[in-house]
Amino acid sequence: MREQLMATAFPIVPVAKAPMGRTPAKLIDGAAGAIPRADPPSATRAARILVLGGGFGGIAAVRRLEHLFGSRPDVEITLVSRDNFFVITPLLFEACSGRLELRHCAQPIRPALRRARFVEATVTSVDADRRVVRAVGPNDGTYELPYDQLIVALGATTNEALIPGSEAALTFKTMTDALVLRNHLIERLERADAAITAAARRRCLTVVVVGGGLVGVEPLGELTAFAGDVLRYYPRIRREELRFHLFEAGPRILPEIDAKLADISLRVLRGRGADIRVSTPVRAIEPERLHLSYESIDAGTIVLVAGIVPSAVAAAFPVEHDRRGRIVVNQAMRSLSHPTIWALGDCAAIPGPDGEPYPALAQHAIREARRLAENVAAVVDERAPAPFVFRSLGTMASLGHAQAVARVFAVRLTGFPAWWVRRTYYLFQMPRWDRRLRIMLDWTVALFFRPDITKVDIATEQVQMRDERASSTRRSGGYIAEQANFAKGDADTRTKARA
Ligand SMILES: Cc1cc2nc3c(=O)[nH]c(=O)nc-3n(C[C@H](O)[C@H](O)[C@H](O)COP(=O)(O)OP(=O)(O)OC[C@H]3O[C@@H](n4cnc5c(N)ncnc54)[C@H](O)[C@@H]3O)c2cc1C
């Protein structure tokens, strides 16, 4: 049955005999299938461009490729990604606080594509000699996807290797992370409200963010605002009982933004009572406990956002990598060791004009993707690729409470104007108007009402429902047995009466 389903999704066609315009994905379903090395594109076979990762970089690359190739039948474009949606990460904080409906910070991939084929699967490895990518589909079937040009945009994950015990902390990278953190915070408020001891109450009301970059400062700002707004539903908790800490190992917060704006952010957050310490490395994390060099802090919520590492899958690809595991490419974003492989975004080290790699930011990933798509199109049409050169347009950091800091084209903005510019910019990163309208509606509603504190803890709910079902099955099993005994007894009585 599974084979049948997979075969419908991917016709099993020998690679060399593929009809023009359709990527044959060979289903190997666990066993290593023998696919010959991909033939070069020819008059009978389209050039196959395979894009891995449906995030900022992958989606921008595919959309640019679609635009460049139009409906040309001699080129086919396939996008493989783990999820069937992509996330506008700078909106995740608002999804966490409930100002934005969680699904609205993401865009389904299929409606965003015009002609490219989408495959929902998790990439596991690449065989660069045979030019095939291996991936596992949602039903555990294994695919082999051949390519002529491979674009790797698999992004990065939270670095859990820096601090011992990091796995005990929450992370903030995906939609699931945002949902988990939201549920966790609301749960801690509920527990604090019901706590019997002062220590338990204090622990529940202590939030620690580890890492003072953009991805650390923004959730801290949003959480201070969120907690302040929802406290009216918890009359037994006083505002000053809530403790927010941020620990940064480096000498200042927000290294992505200029020092003056970082100082303003520091003042704003400290003004809300947050304890922010720089040059303060966290030594170890335990469940609900964190150790600095000179003290330990009990905290019900610990969020780890202290740096990223490239996707483990991309770091294991058989191509040249740098010390941090990023794929080493030239200025045209082509792998130095394998010219049919290209990489961009957080999983690549793309040298800028000064030789330093470009930062791991969405604005860079989007521009890199467009240039990279043009370079791949050039190679397909036997032209020379061009280097990627980009000067940042600026950086923006939201601080919650309709406050932000921003540097846009060398102009510094703070407070509400910065916040408005930031929101508007990321709103337009959504590729489709239906999503943009939903976001605008959410924001408008959030202006007039306090954040929702509904907690949807799917895992816990599933366990609770399963237990409930099991116990009602046991109860009804007992009832059925009782009924059966009763019926049997009744029948025996009737038999005896007849006798
Ligand atoms: C919370 C947060 C806030 C941020 N805020 C900002 C900001 O304000 N401004 C800014 O410029 N940048 C910001 N960033 C950084 C920005 O999100 C990244 O730089 C950008 O997403 C990098 O794009 P990418 O395409 O390289 O990777 P991603 O966008 O992470 O995309 C990677 C894609 O690959 C998929 N994938 C991963 N592994 C596999 C696999 N094995 N198989 C199949 N698919 C896989 C993932 O599901 C994902 O779709 C933020 C990041 C976070 C986490």
Topology diagram in text:
Blueprint: H1 2-9, E1 26-27, E2 47-52, H2 56-69, E3 75-81, E4 85-87, H3 92-97, E5 106-108, H4 109-112, E6 117-120, E7 122-127, E8 132-136, E9 142-146, E10 149-152, E11 156-158, E12 170-171, H5 175-194, H6 198-204, E13 206-210, H7 214-230, E14 243-247, H8 259-271, E15 275-277, E16 284-286, E17 289-291, E18 296-298, E19 301-304, E20 308-310, H9 312-315, E21 327-328, E22 341-343, E23 348-349, H10 362-380, E24 394-400, E25 403-408, E26 411-414, H11 415-427, H12 433-448, H13 458-498
Parallel strand pairs: 2-3, 2-10, 3-6, 10-22, 12-19, 13-14, 13-19, 14-15, 21-23
Antiparallel strand pairs: 1-9, 4-5, 7-8, 8-9, 11-20, 16-17, 17-18, 24-25, 25-26
Flavin-adenine dinucleotide binds next to α2, β3, β7, α7 and α10.
Q: Could you give the count of β-strands?
A: 26
Question: Largest beta sheet, briefly?
Answer: 5 strands, parallel
Number of helices: 13
What portion of the residues fall into strands of 2 or more residues? 15-25%
Bound compounds, please? flavin-adenine dinucleotide
Query: Average pLDDT value?
Result: 86
Classify the secondary structure makeup into a structural class. Answer: alpha/beta
Global geometry? globular
Helix content: 25-40%
The end-to-end span amounts to 57 Å
Uncertain regions spanning at least 5 consecutive residues: 1-38
Strand order of the largest sheet: 6-3-2-10-22
Rg (CA only): 27 Å
